[in-house]
Write a structure and sequence with these properties.
Elements: H1 8-11, H2 16-21, E1 25-32, H3 37-49, E2 52-58, H4 67-73, E3 82-85, H5 88-97, E4 101-105, E5 112-113, E6 123-128, H6 136-141, E7 144-147, H7 159-174
């Protein structure tokens, strides 16, 4: 059995222009005051990998072009469409006006267990600040909260790890 790594050419990846004109999964990731530019870049890279519709950067989030974002995005910040909102609530209002179902990825009373989440149609997920999570007023404005079950001593995952888990599952459902 041959397990030689594939070359870039053998992977048949699309060009930047092909990506921009391709059909996207109707999934938007909203970053609510994410402070780490490396986490923001990682989210862009994940959004590119799953061909998501876009990333909304809110509050204290840094926006491309930015060298620190580029270190982890590796160019995905140039392919994935993004919008900036000074206030995350404005992003949520816009998404609802555009008929998206909006979920905060957060531990709350009555949150939906991630194992049970089923999405159909345009969906947005909100990921929060590395220490404080998604703002309560943003959770309140969302259509629901989704929680990833954890079994260890820590009560949270890194925001870029959470993005990978959530965006993979939801993009698969929406594809």
């Amino acid at each position: 059995m041959n397990h030689t790594k594939l070359t870039i050419q053998e992977m048949h990846r699309m060009s930047t222009d092909e990506f921009r004109s391709s059909d996207k999964v109707p999934l938007i990731v909203v970053l609510d005051n994410v402070r780490s530019q490396h986490n923001i870049g990682a989210v862009f890279r994940t959004a590119d990998a799953f061909r998501l519709q876009g990333v909304y950067l809110c509050g204290i989030c840094c926006c491309p072009p930015n060298q620190e974002i580029h270190k982890t995005a590796l160019g995905a910040e140039q392919t994935v469409p993004f919008r900036y909102f000074e206030n995350t609530l404005d992003a949520v209002r816009q998404l609802k006006e555009d008929r998206y179902t909006v979920y905060a990825i957060e531990q709350t009373r009555n949150s939906i267990n991630f194992d049970n989440i089923q999405v159909q149609g345009p969906t947005a997920v909100i990921l929060g600040h590395e220490v404080f999570g998604v703002q309560q007023e943003v959770i309140d404005a969302s259509d629901g909260a989704v929680e990833i079950t954890q079994y260890g001593t820590k009560h949270s995952l890194n925001v870029s790890v959470t993005a990978g888990i959530v965006l993979y599952k939801l993009s698969t459902q929406l594809r």
